[in-house]
Structures are given as C-alpha cells and as structure tokens.
Amino acid sequence: MTDKTADIINKTKPEALIDHNLVKVEDMECDGLIYEKRPATRLDGSPAEGLYNAWIIFNNPAQYNSYTTEMVKATILAFRRASIDREVNAVVFTAVGDKAFCTGGNTKEYAEYYAGNPQEYRQYMRLFNDMVSAILGCDKPVICRVNGMRIGGGQEIGMACDFSVAQDLANFGQAGPKHGSAAIGGATDFLPVMIGCEQAMVSGTLCEPFSAHKAARLGIIMDVVPGLKVNDAYVPNPTVITDHMFDDFGRVVHGEFKHGAEFKEGREVIKSGEVDLSLLDVKVEELCAKLIETFPECMTKSLEELRKPKLDAWNANKENSRSWLALNMMNEARTGFRAFNEGTKETGREIDFVALRQALAQGTPWTEELIDSLMPGVKD
Predict the structure, then answer these.
(1) Is 294 helix (H, G, I), strand (E, B) or coil?
(2) How far apart, in whole angstroms, are the C-alpha atoms of residue 315 and residue 313?
(3) Where residue 330 sits, what CATH number does that domain have?
(4) Do residues 103 and 174 share a domain?
(5) Which DSSP letter does residue 186 get?
(6) Three-state secondary structure call for residue 95
(7) What is the pLDDT of residues 115-132, one digit of tens each?
C-alpha cells in the first residue's frame, strides 16, 4: 500500500462501522465448529495487511465431522459473519483431521431423536436448507478444502461451495438409498449440473464412493494434491489408478479404484506412511491469493451469476425435498439411520434389503417388529 492510499484511508474512515451480524460474535460459538480469521497473502507470499481469509472448520472428528443440529446453526451464522466481514477476502470451508471433511448429518442424533419424529426433522431440515443457502449466498468466494472423505450431506454442502481442492486419499459420494434417504439435500440438484445426468444417476442411486482423482476427472473438484508421505516423499493414492487414462478397450480408468490384491497392497502402503496435508494448504492459500488480486464487487457479481445453475435447481426443489425427507422419517429413514447407528464393523451398518423388499411385496405394513427384524446382525 502506498503512503498516499494509506493517507486517504485515514482521512475518510468513519468513526464507527455498523455491525450487520444478526447476533453477537460471542453468541455464534459452538464446540463443533471453529471460526478463524487467518492473515491473507499476495501471490508472491507477502502479507496483505489488514486482510484475512475466514476458515470455517467442522470440529467433530470422532464422528467423522458429521454435523449436529448445533453445528448447522453455527455454520449458518459463520457464513453470514464471513460474508459481511469487510476484511475477509475468501472463505475456506474444511474440517479437523485428515479422515473426513464431512459425512453428512449426525446419524446418532438422527437415530436417537429425529427418527419417527417428522415434525421435528422438518424443523431440522429448515436449518439444513438455510446452511446450504448460506454457502450459495455468501458474498465471498467459498473454497472447500477437502481434508478427507466427503460423503452424503458432506458431499452436498461441499458441492454448494465455489471451488473444491482435495487431498487424494479423500473419497466422494452419496449414501441416501443405502441408508434410508434420498440425496435431495442438494445432490440431485447439483450433480446433474456439475457432472451430467448419467454420472449423477450413478452417484445418487448406487452410492458407490469414488476417488478424488475421479472427482477431478468428472469436474466436481478443481484440483487434487497428494496427501500421503512414504519415506518422507509424497506418493499418489496407491489404491487408485493414476498413471494412465485408458484400458485396452479404450475405457477411461484414470481415477478408478484398483481391484483385489492390488487394492489390498495399496492399503498396506497407506498404513506404512503418514498423511501430510501441507500440499493441500499450499494449494488453498495459492487459490486465496489469486482471488485477492481482483475487484471485490466484480468478484461478488461473478459469483452470483455463476452460481445461478445450482441456485435455480436448489431453490426450485428445497421445500418439496424438506417435506418428503420429514415424512420419510416414519419408515425407511427411521430404519436406515437406526441400522447405521446400531450396527458395527462386524455386523455391517445396512439392513437386509432383500428381506424388506420381500415383506413389502406381500403387503406387510411398517411396524416396530418388521424394523427390528431387519437390523444388522439379526439371525433367524
């Protein structure tokens, strides 16, 4: 900053600035969410005095950074806080640890409180809708720093962001029909826009996770960097095909998971190394620095216009989706979330889908006895 610019700032700065937050900053705090303002830098790495990037960080690693009701409320306020902060250049949305960015709603809370209570879940979904809208309506560019798996509702709030940069051990995907829901918290709105109808259908119905490399190939994230260090050197995800684009039949295989023994060998390589997200942080800071070298109002208007395909789909469907998700808490969601919450690694976390379909084919009503019989680990 030149002395002349500094002099103009000092001469014209108002005595007091109006606070546009809805609540006091101290009332925005939540154990499950961290809000930080980190000093911004220029492209050459030098400090941009008085400017910051806001980091909104999920802090629930013990439950794979799934969001509780309190975390959702805090996230809404955090994005509004960052949006109106005159000193903030960009928002980085991420989470604690290296295992998960977010796996969606907190299934323990779903199973133990919301299951069977559609009227309560409807109010929760109002908050969820407002969280997605807060991301899509933020006046600052939003970067999803994908520090680990981005699944289910975590994938949906990640897709609401403007940019995503991932470490390459992260997996992506939806979980709806496997766990008693439908991916209508944003995925069915955003996926067809971002990756096309066919791949959206694959992700939204089969619920098979895909790698960060495939996510980059499909265009659902802007960049991917190594996150695994073996013998002090970064290596690409060893469970994923990263060294060529096509197989012998001309099919794209870059970014697909390896199979059988090769996949198991890759898992052993991961266990032998350590996760280091330094390259991810470098890439995120570099993107923030690129964004700061722009006119701020032109940036905000560009964001508003470029978000419209996602916004139009989201706004057209979110209320109907909210209503259906609430009513679904009486049967399939009630069953699926309970199975996930009560299941274990040994029993699995999914119901007996074939048994359910067989029962419904005979006109069996949804009862507690039917639900009990479908739980993981139940034997004849």
Answers:
(1) coil
(2) 6
(3) 3.90.226.10
(4) yes
(5) T
(6) strand
(7) 999 999 999 999 999 999
Q: To which residue do tokens 């439950």 refer?
A: 63
Q: How many CA atoms lie within 13 A of 147 on its CB side?
A: 23
Q: What is the pLDDT of residue 97?
A: 98
- Whether residues 54 and 132 share a domain: the answer is yes
Q: Which of 18-22, 81-85, 363-367 has the lowest mean pLDDT?
A: 18-22
Residues 176 and 79 in one domain: yes
Q: Mean pLDDT over all residues of the chain?
A: 95
Q: Is residue 236 part of a domain?
A: no
* Cβ 329 vs Cβ 115: under 8 Å: yes
Q: pTM, whole model, 2 decimals?
A: 0.94
Best CA proximity match to 98, nearest among 52, 145, 29, 56: 145
| Structural domain containing residue 183 | 17-227+276-342
Q: How far is the C-alpha of 163 from the C-alpha of 194, rounded, in Å? A: 12
| Strand ordering across the sheet containing 228-230 | 233-235, 228-230, 274-275
CA nearest 104: which of 173, 28, 36, 168?
Answer: 173
Residue 90's closest CA among 150, 33, 165, 17?
A: 165
Task: Report the amino acid identity of residue 319.
Answer: E
Q: Judge contact between 144 and 94, C-beta under 8 A.
A: yes
- Centre a 10 Å sphere on the Cβ of residue 98 and count the other Cβ atoms it contains: 19
Query: Taking the CB of residue 197, how many other CB atoms lie within 10 A of it?
Result: 10
Task: Say which residues have a Cβ less than 8 Å from residue 50's Cβ, sequence separation at least 6.
Answer: 87
Neighbour tally for 166: CB within 10 Å: 31
Instruction: Please tell me the total count of domains within the chain.
Output: 2
Is pLDDT above 80 for 245?
A: no
Do residue 223 and residue 362 come from a single domain?
no
User: What amino acid occupies position 116?
Assistant: G
Q: Residue 136's closest CA among 84, 176, 186?
A: 186
Which single residue is written with the structure tokens 């903030």? 88
